[in-house]
Specification:
This protein is of the alpha/beta class and 266 residues long. Helix content is 41%, strand content 14%. The N and C termini lie far apart (50 Å). The structure holds nicotinamide-adenine-dinucleotide.
């Protein structure tokens, strides 16, 4: 028996096999969930379809989370095919390249607003559409990063979008709790993916994360998938409105003894 037998999970944000959303899909599928996938644009279909087919996914549909009609169509199709939804995973982020590098003070207003819209406000848009499909309760989750709470050079617009996403998580949790719908955010350590590659200096950030984390290792898609599985299942039944870290402990470090690190490396 799987932890998610009989559950329907809709995941937004699988672009390729490196996507964190794909790690989530695999973990939820492993414990018995039926997986439905939504991807951003038609040209991703050739990558997403074989992945979905490999886990028996019968629902794969394009939707831009900036477009109301496309989101409506996905939720209508889910309602028609499954009649309900138990888990919603938002693994979506977007920022213009100019918003992911350079001086923060020079950030263009349009770039900042589009990053917040697609990466954070879209969670409200998806949650509102999911709610009627979760009459017996459910679990909604999204992906955040600690640049929301401490400065990480170059994250600029995405850092602000993640701060908004974390606040949105609390407010949605407060609204939806009565209906037993839980809303949480997973704060993942740095992982090499398509989106992450757009951040200036990401390679150095990976190296830094590995050497400064208490556990001295990086996080994988599967690590995130297993936390998503916990959040999707009844094991987390009284947890809502939280930001939960899976980062080998990186976020707890306020200071790293650089000299000790150099000595260790020699
Ligand atoms: P990814 O590029 O694989 O996933 C991002 C997804 O967002 C893609 O599938 C992309 O198509 C989708 N997307 C972008 N604009 C969209 C739109 N308008 N409509 C619908 N979908 C859209 O990269 P990822 O690293 O797997 O990112 C997934 C989530 O994890 C993001 O929220 C990201 O910020 C977060 N995250 C990533 C890291 C990391 O280091 N990779 C760390 C912490 C959090």
């Amino acid at each position: 028996m799987g932890l998610l037998d009989g559950k329907i999970a809709l995941i937004f944000g699988v672009a390729n096999k490196h996507s964190i959303g794909w790690g989530i899909a695999r973990a939820l599928h492993r414990e018995g969930a039926t997986i439905a996938l939504s991807y951003a644009m038609d040209r991703l279909e050739k990558r997403v379809r074989p992945l979905g087919e490999s886990i028996g996914c019968e629902f794969m549909m394009q939707a831009d989370v900036g477009k109301a009609a496309e989101m409506d169509a996905v939720f209508e199709a889910v309602a028609e095919k499954y009649g309900k939804l138990d888990v919603l995973a938002h693994s979506v982020a977007f920022a213009e390249r100019d918003a992911l590098g350079g001086r923060f003070v020079d950030l263009r207003r349009e770039s900042l607003l589009s990053a917040i819209d697609i990466s954070a406000v879209s969670l409200i848009e998806l949650a509102r559409r999911a709610e009627p499909l979760m009459p017996a309760g459910g679990s909604i989750m999204s992906l955040t990063y600690n640049a929301s709470r401490a400065v990480v050079p170059n994250y600029n617009a995405m850092a602000v979008a993640k701060a908004a996403l974390e606040a949105i998580t609390m407010y949605l949790a407060a609204d939806l709790g009565r209906g037993k719908i839980r809303v949480n955010a997973i704060s993942a350590g740095a992982i090499k993916t398509l989106s992450a590659g757009g951040i200036a200096g990401f390679r150095d950030l990976l190296k830094y994360a590995e050497v400064t984390a208490p556990m001295k290792e990086l996080v994988s898609q599967d690590d995130v998938g297993d936390l998503a599985l916990f959040l999707a299942s009844d094991l987390s039944r009284r947890i809502t409105g939280e930001v939960i870290y899976v980062d080998a402990g990186h976020n707890i470090m306020g200071y790293t003894d650089v000299e000790a690190l150099v000595n260790e490396a020699e």
